[in-house]
What does this fold into?
Amino acid sequence: MSAPPRDTQANPPDWYMDLKPSRQHWTIPKQHQTLDRKIHARPYRDAQSRSTMTLPITLMGPTDPPPYTIHNESGKAPLLLVADHASPVIPSALHQLGLDAESLNRHITWDIGSANLARGLADLLDAPLILAGYSRLVIDLNRQVDDSTAIPAISDGTVIPGNEIVDEQQRSSRIAAFFQPYHAAISARLDHFHSNGIAPAFLSVHTCTPLLNQLQRPWHIGVMWDKDPRIAVPLLQQLNRMKGLCIGDNQPYSGRHPHDFTIDFHAERRGIAHVGIEVRQDLVSDAAGALKWAEILAAALAEPLAEPGIYCPLQQWQAGAAAQQ
It folds into this structure.
């Protein structure tokens, strides 16, 4: 299997923070430090993620979790799973963004059930998984940082008081504390595959509300993809063979959405095989449901992921397919 290009060989946006050689410190670009003083930071070791990082004390207290955790870190599959919206946690410094308990438990705060779903799928596929540590309302890890929806002031009709007025200093602090460490961890893991000569597959795991804007969503599972069919097309075929399932092909969201970030930045730029998965939240809201649907997805993914030809950059795969015609 040939390896994809490293993320650092492309030209990342100027705000992007690459993982530096030091294992204990992140370098924060000057434009994303606080305007009146530098963000002071302290080392923080999380037992679950087994990683050391620096956390800006301006946003994270001693009891707050790290920006990401790694599950099944020693997984053997040539595959990386990520869960951008796995957590409802809001750092103590942001005072729940002014939301009440009911709002904090809604889908606007996180992808309900996605953490358990992703962990179950990672275990079944024997693959590492990187999970976000904080709510999408703090900053959406699947959006460009300058996108208006990255720090939403309103979500599904609910006003987010703590996001109504966010100045550049506050935005920069959230980027440095939450967005950059998570995406740097993904890049580091993909670079680790690269250093071992592996072009891994990439799966982004999400869940979706069954009701949005007063519209019911019938799909049990949605498969999100754009130009790379290597996993998505055979996955759709496998899922559509399963009785009783309603499967969305780029429904309820599309992999062609111009504002998505994670797959575009990490997978499409490298040319590695990838797919986005959405499962309806009412199906995975408890541990038993999450495991059931993880098993369904693992069974459907088994054949696509067993195809050795997908573990190469997309252009190489396309050239091979063209040569066989």
